[in-house]
Amino acid sequence: MKVVVIGAGAIGGWIAGLLAEAKWDVSLLARGQTLSNIREQGLRVRHQGAEKTYKLLASDNADDLGKPDYVIVAVKGQNVPSLAPAIRSLLGPGTAVVPALNGIPWWFFQVPGVPLQDVVLQSVDPGGVLSKAISPERVIGCVVHASAWTPEPGVIEVNGEDKLLFGEPDGAQRERTTTLAAAFGSSSVKPVVSANIRLDIWTKLWGNMTMNPLSVLTGATTGRMLDNPDVRALIRAMMLEMQDIGGKIGLPLAMTPDERMAITRKLGDFKTSMLRDAEAGRGIETAPILGALVEIANGVGEPAPFIRAVAGLLNVRA
Q1: Closest Cα partner for 180 from 15, 31, 8?
Q2: Mind listing the pLDDT tens digit for each residue in 82-105?
Q3: Which SS3 state, helix, strand or coil, does residue 162 take?
Q4: What is the 3-state secondary structure (H, E, C) of 188-246?
Q5: Which distant-in-sequence residues (6+ apart) come within 8 Å of 229 by Cβ?
Q6: Catalytically annotated residue among 204, 248, 266, 271
Q7: pTM here?
């Protein structure tokens, strides 16, 4: 199978390495120093003290990369609209598009029969450029449960890896999704084919939409925030608001906020990826993590005052 990974950062580079190990034909759409380093040194992935180097075709021009079976989009959500022309030029008759993104993706309501069907979220798809460039039938949903970062361009440091979830937005079982998941079957990550990938995305966001923004506003690690009773109360209030929103769009969250915070606590005391980006001067994912959530709250008539307040503060900080 042939795949093009757009974005050779932490997650994109990690996924590219895993697929190269599975003997897939992997190419990278990258730019700047990342592209230069990959061309000169290869893509370097470090895990548990060991480093592997992958010599992969890499270009900043999508036209150099052909028409793959899969396009995996692994960039920050706010950067995807600018890549719409590149994605479109990669699409062959059967190419599937797999957005491996944090937060709410552009296609989230482009699913028949869901509440708010066909709503275009301007926060993640301004003007509907992605919805127009990529037909919903091409999309395979994805949720990443892994931690990685880039100590230098073209070098991926994997801190931990758990699961990769893939699923058709409409919940159907299709060969293209099982084929993609199977490619990771012999790796150290657990591939899962989900029957409700939208709920999986919503559930992951339930944790990210508190810890990530609040870490940027406070400069604190997860453990320090959870140790503070007032911050913990704010986290709980935001999570309850998101539960109310989810109930109105058919995505109920059965866990309690305290149970979800306990899961975060078990992961240790760490810096969120958003805090790392802020400290490095990189753009942060305000729009896909909180901007889209505010839009959805507007769509279902939920006030969500705590989510709105934190979104406003994060916009000022960004």
Answers
A1: 15
A2: 999 999 999 999 999 999 999 999
A3: strand
A4: CCEEEECCCHHHHHHHHHHHHHHHHHHHHHHCCCHHHHHHCHHHHHHHHHHHHHHHHHH
A5: none
A6: 204
A7: 0.95
CB atoms within 10 A of CB 248: 16
Task: Give dist(CA 155, CA 16) in Å, integer.
Answer: 12
Q: From CA 36, how far away is CA 30, in angstroms rounded?
A: 9
- Ranges of H-type helices in the chain: 10-21, 32-41, 84-90, 129-133, 175-182, 197-218, 222-227, 229-248, 257-266, 273-279, 286, 292-300, 305-317
Residue 267 has pLDDT above 90, yes or no: no
Sequence length of the chain is: 318
User: Where on the phi/psi map is residue 65: left (φ > 0), alpha (ψ -120 to 50), or beta?
Assistant: alpha
Are the CB atoms for 61 and 88 separated by under 8 Å? no
Structure confidence by residue, pLDDT tens digits, 177-213: 999 999 999 888 999 999 999 999 999 999 999 999 9
Sheet containing 96-99, strands listed edge to edge, beginning at the edge strand earlier in sequence: 57-59, 25-29, 2-6, 70-73, 96-99
The type of residue at 270 is F
Percent of the chain, pLDDT > 70? 100
Whether 204 sits among the annotated catalytic residues: the reply is yes
What's the token pair of residue 75?
A: 């960039």
Q: How far apart are CA 146 and CA 212, in angstroms?
A: 15
| Alpha-carbon distances, residue 289 vs 82, 268, 313 (angstroms) | 18, 22, 14
